[in-house]
Amino acid sequence: MKAFVFMLLAAGSCRLAMAQTNAPASPETAAAQKTFLTSESAVFDGNNRQMIYAGHVVVVNPKVRLTCDQLTVNLPPGGGQPTNMVADTNVVADFTDNKGQTNHVTSAQAVYDYKVENSITNETVTFIGNPIVETADYTIFSEPLVWDRARNKFHFKNEKIVPKHSFDSGNGTNTSPLKLF
Question: Which class is domain 2-175?
Answer without folding.
Answer: mainly beta
